[in-house]
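Researcher: Good morning. I'm working through a list of sequences from a screen, and I'd like to move beyond sequence-only analysis. For each chain I'm collecting a predicted structure so we can compare shapes side by side. This is the next one on the list. No need for commentary yet; just the structure.
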Amino acid sequence: MYIEKISLTNFRNYKEQNIELNNNINMFYGNNAQGKTNILEAIYLCAIGKSYRAKKDKELVNTEEQYSKAQVNYVKKDRQGKIEVDISDKKIISMNGIKLKKMSEVLGNVNVVLFSPDDINLFREGPSKRRKMLDVMISQLRPKYVYNLNMYQKTLEQRNNYLKQIKYENKDQSILEIWEQKLAEYAEVINRYRIEFIEKIMKEIVSIHGKITKDKEIIKIDYISDFTNREEFLEKLKRNRKVDIIKGFSGIGIHRDDFKTYINNKELGIYGSQGQNRSAVLSIKLSELEIVKEEVEENPILLLDDFMSELDKERRKNFLEDVKDTQVIITCTDKLELKNENKKTFFVENGNVKEQI
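Model: Good morning. Structure tokens for this chain:
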């Protein structure tokens, strides 16, 4: 699969921009704060339904305007399509001109794997970042996962609200069982999917990381969860009620899950060097690439936000050889010398993109 064209209207610092892409390598270069990352953000928005940077959709609207639009035209082995995201007072996503009833319906039409500068700290920061990475990967491939994840979050919010009512209004504690039963139901499905995909990552990552580190490092991932089975999970929630009532939120649940990564049996987030963290992130993202490829029988689109500059020339060369049949969209500050005939190069300055021939 690949993106044929990107169209932006009042998106971030772009007023009106149309970009026709190459089906392999596309490099956008220029100084910082010129709009390079905004292009990747627009693609991600159309693929996933939300930004990977903005907390609110309004942030995507040009400051001088009231609405914005991002559109991608894509090509897959069996069809072509168009995804359009309009943002004004609310967000509307359309597929081939038809408005989607649910935002989640956009998932899986265009599969993307994103490297961003924040990913360098994937193993050093808190578990929420690692959960998000896992959730985005699974969501693109398993529509039922999105439903269960959303329902879990809504049920969790309801339980948390009722915990506060017990604390401040002395409500009946036994009512908590209603939400706990639903939490266990959704948690069971989410846990099953997460374990499945951690196993898929492990299947790919060992050989990928061995190649990157020339077999000097052995990588291992352990998934950590409060959930083992439904009965034990319900018992944990029940035992923790008193503490939850005092705190006013649920301290037990799959919303606190994590996975830890080890290099040569040492926890990466604690003992790993900057270079080891960088290599591990590269390995996990390449594993994601392989998993998506295996699942959908097409290469996903690779978005590299200022990541190639983190690699030396040799690793850059090896990396591009590994993804030679994949559409790659790169942002960087300096023009990279890439020995690849099938590529397009764009210069970005102040919200304007110019192809360089």
